[in-house]
Specification:
mainly alpha, 7 helices, single chain
């Protein structure tokens, strides 16, 4: 895969999701999707997605806490905001999965038999959140998540 194409695609994705990149390496890591085992059950970006999932939980919990929500409200509201269905819809709305790539293909260019995964639990958006956190730090990531979720009507009043 030509790095020039990857760089172009990552900048395109960043613009689409209103993310101001400092270090492109993190977004490239987030969208790199090479199977790490023969069964194709674990992918290169899953560790970054795990970090992104944790950061997302922290940001949403803190946001609800700051709004005066009690424990039960935080649990219930956060669960709805970060469930797989919500993240999957956001990933599809912005076509984030279309920017996934491996050593040979960008998602949209891969032949059907070699297409990269796009599961119902969409780890791409979580990996992107992890990349934003690693690239820009917690404060920027917090603002990005809150703005992104607000823009998409995913945060309760």
């Amino acid at each position: 895969m030509d790095d020039k194409i990857i760089v172009e695609k990552m900048h395109e994705l960043a613009k689409k999701i209103d993310y101001e990149i400092t270090d492109l390496l993190w977004l490239k890591k987030a969208m790199y999707c090479k199977p790490l085992d023969d069964k194709k059950q674990e992918y290169a970006d899953e560790s970054l997605a795990t970090l992104g999932d944790t950061v997302l939980k922290l940001i949403l919990t803190e946001s609800l806490y700051n709004k005066g929500s009690n424990k039960a409200e935080i649990t219930n509201k956060k669960q709805k905001m970060e469930d797989n269905n919500t993240l999957f819809k956001l990933c599809n709305k912005y076509g984030i999965y279309k920017y996934a790539y491996n050593d040979t293909y960008i998602f949209t260019e891969a032949p059907l038999e070699k297409q990269l995964p796009h599961p119902q639990h969409d780890f791409y958006i979580e990996a992107v959140i992890g990349a934003i956190y690693k690239d820009k730090g917690l404060e920027y990531c917090r603002n990005w998540v809150i703005n992104f979720f607000n823009k998409n009507n995913c945060l309760p009043d």
